[in-house]
Amino acid sequence: MYDRLFRHISHLVELTDDEFAFLKTLFIPKKLRRKQFLLQEGDVDKYIAFVDKGLLRVYTVDEKGVEHIVQFAPEGWWASDLYSYLTGEPSRYNIEALEDAELLLLDQASNERMVQVVTKMERYLRLILQNNYVATHRRLVNSLSQSAEEKYREFVQRYPDIAQRVPQHMIASYLGITPAFLSRIRGRKPSEE
Known about the structure:
Elements lengths: L2 H8 L6 H10 L1 E5 L4 E3 L7 E7 L2 E6 L5 E7 L4 E2 L2 H6 L6 E4 L3 E7 H10 L2 H26 L2 H11 L1 H6 L2 H8 L3 H9 L6
Antiparallel strand pairs: 1-8, 2-7, 3-6, 3-8, 4-5, 4-7
Protein name: Cyclic nucleotide-binding domain-containing protein
Organism: Larkinella terrae
Pfam families: cNMP_binding
């Protein structure tokens, strides 16, 4: 169950077998069934979760009951409400399994122990946060500057696996458009844009 995590870490930092063995003791394996929640709005996020298998979505629900998906997390991705995790404040987000999932959870105490004992993991976490910041910033700029068609085409190009695994109404929610509008976009040929 830890192979994917260790491959992910190894792409960014080089660890010894002993360091890997130590890291393994810090993570809590967790299985979720499809439609089961890892986190619900109003609860404090006590873990950051590495997705070993399956697919999660992170979303919020507005006052009108409309869902707004802010992240999909397939295998090899991390998912959490980092603000809630770091501050201890209640989360505004829900984290739900879209498929049966196997996760590796890391609480704050274990996270602190990890970076104290295996100092290279601080670099790993910094690189993960930097990559997340860049992706979030790119998504923000695209949402302000791209047409709905451009956002959809980029999503499909950048995340073809996710596009095949999630329902169209969830892609529409992620892109900030209605399912009906997404259906019209999907029906167009690229030359019609």
